[in-house]
Amino acid sequence: MDRLWKQFEGLGTASKHNVFFKARLKLTALYVVIVAVIVIGFSLFLYQSIGHNLNDASDDDFSGLESRHHFVQNTLDSVQNDLMLADLFIILTTAGLSFVLAGKTLKPIQLSVEAQKAFASNASHELRTPLAVMRNDIEVLLRNQSATKEVTHKTMTSNLEEISRMSGIVEDLLFLARSDNKVIPKHENVDIGLITKKVVDRMKPIALSKSIDLNYIPSATYLINGSQSALERAVLNILQNSIEHTPANGSINLDVKKDGTTVMICIKDTGHGIKNSDLPHIFKRFYKGNSDTGTGLGLSIVKEIIDQHNGKVSIESIEGKGTSVIIHLPIA
Fold first, then answer.
1. At how many degrees (to 10) do helices 2-12 and 65-143 cross?
2. Inter-CA distances, 206 with 28, 29, 133, 256, 272, Å
3. Is 310 left (phi over 0), alpha (psi -120 to 50) or beta?
4. Which tens digits make up the pLDDT trace of 187-216?
């Protein structure tokens, strides 16, 4: 009871405008009313039953009518007091337990709503930045009455880059929204080896431009049941992260091989690594740790895609030495 009372004291300080706190109180009140009706109804029935039995007692058991009446009254008073105490204890205990159960019932809904609010807030923040840059560039250009063709071209190029960035953010947000609504791309048997090779071929020029050695040894044919476009996106997001966080003259190795009944994709780089404190949160949406680049959606999308394919993804990293992303996908 002490523990329940402490919970009441702590929750009593919650905002009166908290919709979940109000809903919790309503559920608690509903549970208490239901139990109270049952308990009080049972108590009244029991009280009347005992009274009826006492009144039907034989007069031979008492020295007189007054003695009989006194015994019946004392017994009913004692039963009444006991029932009232028992009812009060049951109702108070029910109130405490109901409050706790109502909290557990509403907790998933509360977490979902809070996640949606955080998602909307973070998405607005990510979209606000490129819009602010574009607006500032255009305002500066409009105020410059003698803007040259070169200045105009530079402004337009900058705006196109910001539009491209916003398009990427919107595309990521749409993917996550569809995932939340359980809209999953059509799956078919695809060769994960060919998918990874296609992504590596696409990213190799970017890696070379940063003096990063991107290594990939062509693998055997491994068929898995999945979406080719989604799997390409997952591997692409990981390689983009690796290239972004690997310094010049570093290396990235991508390996695809069979591991029991699964195909293992391992992408290992010699980049900056990830702090131990960041690793537990790395797949959370919009989580960027101390990084100022990116949107924090890339790895959360990877996690969504691998989950949709009944696979597993994990990250091992040593700060200052590099990171390994390991994916396991069931063989078709």
1. 40
2. 59, 62, 25, 21, 18
3. left
4. 899 999 999 999 999 999 999 999 999 998
